[in-house]
Each structure stands twice: as C-alpha cells, then as structure tokens.
Amino acid sequence: MELEDIRREYSKGGLRRKDLKQNPIDQFNFWLQQAIDAGLTDPTAMTVATVDEQGQPFQRIVLLKHVDDEGFVFYTNLGSRKAQQIEGNSRVSLHFPWHTLERQVHVTGCAEKLSMKDNIKYFSSRPKESQLAAIASKQSSRISTRGVLEGKFLELKQKFANGEIPVPSFWGGFRVKVESIEFWQGGDHRLHDRFLFSKQEKAWQIDRLAP
Prior knowledge:
The protein is α+β, with helices and mostly antiparallel strands. The protein has helices at residues 24-37, 81-88, 116-125, 128-136, 146-159; strands at 45-51, 57-63, 66-68, 71-77, 91-98, 103-113, 171-185, 193-199, 204-209. The protein has five helices and nine strands, in the order αββββαββαααβββ. Strands 1, 2, 3, 4, 5, 6, 7, 8 and 9 form a nine-stranded antiparallel β-sheet that branches. The chain is globular, with a radius of gyration of 20 Å. One of its GO terms (molecular function) is FMN binding.
C-alpha cells in the first residue's frame, strides 16, 4: 500500500459549541479524564515545541505533571536543549495527540521556571530510580556509549543507597502560561470540529475554526 492511500474516516462524534465548557482548562481536564478512562497509553504525553537562535523548531515528548488555571507544568534537565532554547525564547507550544478518541489539543504560551519549592516537592515524590537517573544523565549531551550512563547510574545508586537524594541544581520545572488552546475533534468526511480559546484581558474568546 502506498502512503498516500492510508486513510480512515473519523466517526466518534462531533464537537459543538454548546458542549464546550467556558473555561478551556475545565474543558482540557474533562477530555484528559476521558482519555485516562479510555485506557489510552500515556494520556499525559505531550509534544513540547521550541525554537533555537536560528529559528529552527525542535520537538520532543514529555509528560504533563500538573495543570490548572496558572498553566501546564513539566520537568526537565535545565541544561537540556529544550531548557536552553526556552531560556532564549520562552514562547512554546504543546500538543496532545489522543488518536484513539480522534482528538487533539494544541496549546500556545510562554514558559517560566518553577520555584525551588515546587521543584523539591515534585522531585521528592518521584521513584528513587527516577531521581538517580535525573542526576546521572546530562541531558542532550553527547556520550560515547550507553555503558557510561549505566555506570554513572550504578555509582549514584551505591552512593545514595541509605540516604535521601538531593535535588540537583540543574533540574527543575517549567509552567507554560496559556495564551491559546485549540480543541480538535475528528469529523466525517474530514469536516473536523475545531474550537480556539484565546486569552483576553478578563475572559476567553471562543472561535470555531474551519478544518
């Protein structure tokens, strides 16, 4: 089969303005819970898009760790490529691909660093192996072999076998302050439903977009 012949119909139902919640975070949480209830693999997985100094876009998948009216939160190595690019240009976009439900959510906004208090709270809640991995990996740097990474991990595991693991200074979180959120629901004959929430001074403007 040729790639151009791969297609399917979207038939899980449409999205109407009357069904939308007035606050996009409430709408997102409603859809997220439905994705969780549907048993989707990694329902909190989202693509984070950034750009470098030359305007070259980069994308990678991370896990959403918190969301409220203040924004969407994720954590990373602060020396990573994504963190360095956010340092130079805080404007980012997020994308949630819930294919099984024939839905997508696209978020635009500006990322800001979380406080040390927030970082410590979340880091302490992670499994010990994940804490060690965060320290062992100098994210985005070049390494000669996987053995180097595994050796560092084992060294740290022995070092902190009987004690608490300190939060590394090069690790932390970002909150993406929302400027817009688009909700996309697949429709028959490619007549998809799209609604864009745009942040205004005191309210959210809701517009239907053509597919």
